[in-house]
Amino acid sequence: MMTSGGGRRSLAFSTSTEPRLWWHRLPRSNYVPPIFASLSEEEWQIMQGWFDETSRLNLIGECVVPIMSALHGLVMGSGIQRIVQLGTHAGYSALLLGFFLRQMHAERGLISFEIDKALAEFARDWITRAGLDSIVQVEVRSSLDPTAPEIAREYLRGGPELVFLDSSHEYKQTFDELERWYPVISPGGLIVLHDTSEFAASFDVTQRGGVHRALQEWREAHPQIEVISLNRNVPAMETPQMVYRDFCGVGLIQKPV
User: Fold this and answer.
1) Rounded to the nearest 5°, which phi and psi values hold at 163?
2) Is pTM, for the whole model, over 0.90?
3) Which of the two residues, 8 and 135, has the higher pLDDT score?
4) Which of 48, 99, 169, 238 is the least buried, fewest Cβ under 10 Å from its Cβ?
5) Dist. CA 61–CA 39, nearest whole Å
6) Dihedral, CA of residue 236, residue 31, residue 110 and residue 119, to nearest 10
7) CATH superfamily, region 61-254
8) Which residues are CB-contacts of 167 (< 8 A; sequence separation ≥ 6)?
9) 206-247 per-position pLDDT tens digit
10) pLDDT tens-digit profile of 174-214?
């Protein structure tokens, strides 16, 4: 159990040996990051309970503090209220994004696509516990389903302003997701991809280069489009002196206005 006092919040994670909490053990991480500090006490208790239950059930696979912090800044700094998530897993980022959207008084602000029915049901249960049913919807559907973009547009009541791509980590599916969802986002809209680094290419079970290769080839196929990839060439978890402290990397694509 990782239960901690409300005032300390994620500071208690620094004493845990769980691999998933590696960020909280880094030097200069002895503070509560804004993604947790901005939550109400009730919202933090939901996240604490979520961490406890996913540890107990070994449902581990959430993204880490740096990329959630980047999303927090993009969403809350720009008032983004129409978000599509590709890959829900156990619901960590859906919960946090839902809390951010609620602070912005948004309704029907996030739709997330997940192909695993059991994971989708787990995430839905926590979304209900968090009181986010009017803000977040989880669809049991492939992100490449031809009907998915229209379902997203209908739920969000407009084209997505941001697509967060964190699904299979496979090269082919990621490339196809970029091709499917880029045309759907609103002008000026963003696609944020996790796991763009050389290290994270090892997450591709098909061993074809993962998100790293998919983003590189998509960039080459669309040279007129702005693409940024942080930590793209980071080869290992132990890589020293990273300013952006996520060895899995992050990609950012913006559609021209």
Assistant:
1) -115, 125
2) yes
3) 135
4) 238
5) 22
6) 60
7) Vaccinia Virus protein VP39 (3.40.50.150)
8) 86, 87, 113, 143, 173, 174, 177
9) 999 999 999 999 999 999 999 999 999 999 987 767 899 999
10) 999 999 999 999 999 999 999 999 999 999 999 999 999 99
CA–CA gap between residue 120 and residue 127 (Å, rounded): 10
CB 181 within 8 A of CB 138: no
Cβ neighbours of 254 (radius 10 Å): 15
Cα distance between residue 37 and residue 35, in whole Å: 6
Enumerate the domain spans of the chain: 61-254
CA–CA gap between residue 124 and residue 50 (Å, rounded): 12
Question: Is the model's pLDDT at 85 over the cut of 90?
Answer: yes
Which tokens hold the place of 219? 């960039």
- In which band, very low, low, confident or very high, does the pLDDT at 4 lie, cut at 50, 70 and 90? very low
Nearest to 89 by CA among 108, 68, 112, 70: 112
Burial class (CB in 10 A: 0-12, 13-18, 19+), 97: buried
Residue 5, pLDDT > 90, answer no
